[in-house]
Amino acid sequence: MPERDVVVIGASAGGVETLRRLVADLPAGLPASVLIAVHTPESPVARLPEILGRTGWLPAAYAVSGQRLTPGLLTVAPPRRHLVVTAGDVLRLHRGPELRRARPAIDPLLLSAARTCGPRVVAVVLSGLLRDGAEGAAAVAAAGGCVLVQDPADARYPDMPEAVVTRVPGAALWPAAKLGAAIADLVGPIGSSGPGTIVPGGLGAIRPGGPGAAVGCDGIDEALWLAVDRLQAHAAVQQRIHERLEGLGPLAGQAQAQSDRALRAADLITAEVLPLFRPQ
Which of 143, 146, 247, 266 could form a disulfide with 118 if both were Cys (CB 3.0 to 4.6 A apart)? Predict the structure, then answer.
């Protein structure tokens, strides 16, 4: 059986609650990278990584372009960006056109994972309208990966799960209450991934009162991920300012430059600094 160490999850209408339930059932130290694309509004009321990070045992953060796959981390496509996996297990963000009326869309993530990671991929499609995720799920199956689908009878909006089942008749159907356990079973036992996995005692164990409440690496990994998160948030704000001021004077260019600097700093931390730290 091939190693399954890349989990790609797509959700839309009605899927966030299912996603929260799924994430709550994933164990700390999961030996797989978890990439998530959810159809989000322009200005989400709450930031999805914060919601997911409070829900389960795994840390969560928005993806940063240039970031590498990180076992034990929930990596979320930010609003208005498609998330894709490229050669060398490197993540990229891009502002291509909306697909299935959405950006981020699910198919670009699943298609890129199938193309780059092949049989290592576990694709999961949750509740949602229309057909986003069906083509990507079919590509994952064709590449030798596994496809899991929220049971349409269990989904608030069954369009996306039904579309996947039509394209991939062999997809495994699970209710929300069992999806997390099904994923954990597919990716293997805790600790089976290589160095760099976020394990209990690392960033994923900082939830007050939870098991393994001590912070590994003297809190350095937590501080670094917090820095990445804040830099990306700053870049997003500056990018939004640039878009609103574009063509109105030098302030637009200054905002773009600040956004670019923040993203470069986040990329540097993710690619060069974080890999130096290993949870104890």
Answer: 143
Tokens of 6: 């890349």
Q: Distance between CA atoms of 175 and 21, rounded to whole angstroms?
A: 10
How many Å apart are CA 38 and CA 126, to the nearest integer?
Answer: 10
Contact (Cβ atoms closer than 8 angstroms) between residue 136 and residue 124 = no
Q: What is the DSSP letter of 247?
A: T
Residues marked active site are found at 12, 39, 132
pLDDT in tens, 122-163: 999 999 999 999 999 999 999 999 999 999 999 999 999 999
Cis previous bond, 104, omega within 30: yes
Q: Please tell me the pTM assigned to this model.
A: 0.70
Amino acid identity of residue 212, one-letter, is G
d(Cα 277, Cα 270) in Å, to the nearest integer?
A: 11
pLDDT digits (tens, 9 = 90+) for 190-223: 555 444 444 433 333 333 333 333 334 456 656 6
Q: Which two tokens stand for residue 189?
A: 């036992």
